[in-house]
Amino acid sequence: MPEQTTEQTMAASGERKALLEVDHVTLRFGGLTALDDVSFEIREGEILGLIGPNGAGKTTCFNVMTGVYRPTSGQVRFDGNPLSRMKKHKITKLGLARTFQNIRLFKSMTVLENVLVGTDAHSKVGFWDALLRTPRHRRTEAASQERAKELLHLVGITARHDELAANLSYGDQRRLEIARAMGTGPKLLCLDEPAAGFNPAEKVKLMELIRKVRDAGYTVLLIEHDMRLVMGVTDRIVVLEFGRKIAEGVPAEIRDNPAVIAAYLGVDEDAS
Ligand SMILES: Nc1ncnc2c1ncn2[C@@H]1O[C@H](COP(=O)(O)OP(=O)(O)OP(=O)(O)O)[C@@H](O)[C@H]1O
Questions:
Q1: What pLDDT digit, counting tens, does each position of 139-169 carry?
Q2: Which of 22, 29, 66 to mutate to test the pocket of ligand 1 (most atoms within 8 A of CB)?
Q3: Widest distance between CA atoms in the chain
Q4: Across residues 39-67, what is the average pLDDT?
Q5: Which residue in 19, 103, 99 sits closest to 59, CA to CA?
Q6: Is 69 a pocket residue for ligand 1 (Cβ < 6 Å)?
Q7: DSSP state, 16?
Q8: What domains lie within the chain, and their CATH numbers?
């Protein structure tokens, strides 16, 4: 398939429905306003980057978007459903999955088992089916294994199914985290600094993987410090500074936006 230009992707994504809506969200930690009336949306099939200088509110926003924090005011809707008061497993079932800044794998389980933990979130078989190993349970288990192997193939760690997760290289552990999150069958995959600790070659590979994930039909939210990676892989970018949204647009617009440049360089916009 020929590669799409950003404009083509945008033209396509502009017609797409909003999968996740951040609607006038404010979040206060005591006296500190970590998010201040922030609104934006993630559209189906796009890769959206959320960026901003240290302390801008990205992680807080990510946590609000994935249902970890409840906003002080405003609302987050996923596929039209308000996330507040929803339990985590319900959010996962709706189709929202995330990875963590600090890798959180089950290190003493195998690579395949780690992904199976995710696929089990969608399992329809009950407790007794599992206990008695009914044909229904065996069929479901075989389908889950197949699915888990496909995901490992997608992220590029096929050959190491039976290896303990602890024995994988750091880069492969990060890839496994992505496969595990995808195992839950998400519509939206939220990646929290997936390139942390990567060398430049690994970052290039990660960019390819993120594109592959999007091309496989997933929508992706990416929080990432590495500007080159964000600019190179996202369709649109939202920029936060001091808890406020200061810009939103395609990478080329964000790159040239004076408010964004000022935020990153730490200079007074009027003085620049
Ligand atoms: N649980 C919390 N309690 C109190 N203040 C918090 C809490 N979490 C974050 N903050 C504050 O909220 C503000 C935004 O922090 P946040 O971690 O969301 O920023 P960030 O953009 O992710 O920063 P970084 O790039 O450094 O990770 C900061 O001033 C931070 O100190």
A1: 777 778 888 888 998 888 877 778 888 888 8
A2: 29
A3: 72
A4: 93
A5: 99
A6: no
A7: S
A8: 1-95+186-272 (3.40.50.300), 111-184 (no CATH)
Supply the residue whose CA is at minimum distance from atom 28 of ligand 1.
55
Average pLDDT over residues 11-16: 59
Tell how many helices (H) and how many strands (E) occur in the chain. 11, 10
How many Å apart are CA 48 and CA 190, to the nearest integer? 10
Torsion, Cα 236 242 246 248, to 10 degrees, reads 10
Q: Which of 25, 51, 60 to mutate to test the pocket of ligand 1 (most atoms within 8 A of CB)?
A: 60
Ligand 1: atom nearest CA of 62 is 18
CA of 236 to the centre of ligand 1 (A): 23
Nearest residue by C-alpha to atom 30 in ligand 1: 55
* Per-residue model confidence (pLDDT) at position 146: 85
The C-alpha atoms of residue 40 and residue 58 are separated, in whole angstroms, by 13
For residue 34, report the distance from its CA to the centre of ligand 1, in Å. Answer: 7
Average pLDDT of the chain, as a whole number? 85
Query: Which pLDDT does position 271 carry in this prediction?
Result: 46
Q: Is ligand 1 within 6 A of the CB of residue 32?
A: yes
Average pLDDT over residues 62-84: 91
pLDDT in tens, 246-272: 999 999 999 999 999 999 877 554 444
Of 194, 236, 204, nearest to 48 (Cα)?
A: 236
Ligand 1 centroid, distance to 7 Cα (angstroms): 33
Three-state secondary-structure class, residue 239: strand
Per residue in 222-249, pLDDT (tens digit) is 998 888 899 999 999 999 999 999 999 9
